[in-house]
């Protein structure tokens, strides 16, 4: 289940919400002030792997060996 990142417009708190792909909350309650004046923060990484070189099989940009914490 993916995480979505949000920022609170009231207090500036950044927090993550775990929700199903097809049920992304628009304005979840802030984890700090519990208000719903929040907006999603869009990550910079591309969804779908536009810059990926084929399908990575057991390696990542960090180790290229498939044995670091990012791989597993
Ligand atoms: Zn807040």
How would you describe the overall organization of this protein?
By secondary structure, the chain is an all-beta fold. The protein has a domain at 3-41. It contains no helices and three strands. The chain has strands at residues 3-8, 14-18, 38-41. The chain has a three-stranded antiparallel sheet with strand order 2-1-3, with no helix packed on it. A hairpin with a 5-residue loop joins strand 1 (3-8) and strand 2. The radius of gyration is 16 Å and the shape is elongated. The two termini are 16 Å apart. The model has no long low-confidence stretch (mean pLDDT 80). Bound molecules: zinc ion (ZN). Zinc ion (ZN) binds next to loops.
Brief descriptors of the model:
single chain, 72 residues, mainly beta, 3-stranded antiparallel sheet, 3 strands, 0% helix, binds zinc ion
- Average pLDDT for all residues: 80
Main sheet overview: 3 strands, antiparallel
Number of helices: 0
Radius of gyration from the CA trace?
A: 16 Å
Write down how many β-strands occur, each being a DSSP E stretch of 2 or more residues: 3
Beta percentage is: 15-25%
Structural shape: elongated
Strand order of the largest sheet: 2-1-3
| Structural class based on helices, strands and sheet pairing | mainly beta
What is bound: which ligands?
A: zinc ion
Give the proportion of residues in helices.
under 10%
Report how far the terminal alpha carbons are from each other: 16 Å
| Element string (H = helix, E = strand) | EEE
């Amino acid at each position: 289940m993916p995480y979505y990142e949000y920022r609170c417009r009231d207090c500036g708190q950044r927090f993550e919400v775990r929700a199903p792909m097809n049920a992304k909350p628009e304005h979840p309650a802030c984890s700090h002030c519990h208000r719903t004046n929040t907006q999603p923060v869009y990550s910079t990484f591309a969804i779908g792997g536009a810059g990926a070189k084929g399908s990575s099989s057991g390696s990542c940009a960090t180790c290229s060996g498939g044995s670091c914490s990012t791989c597993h």
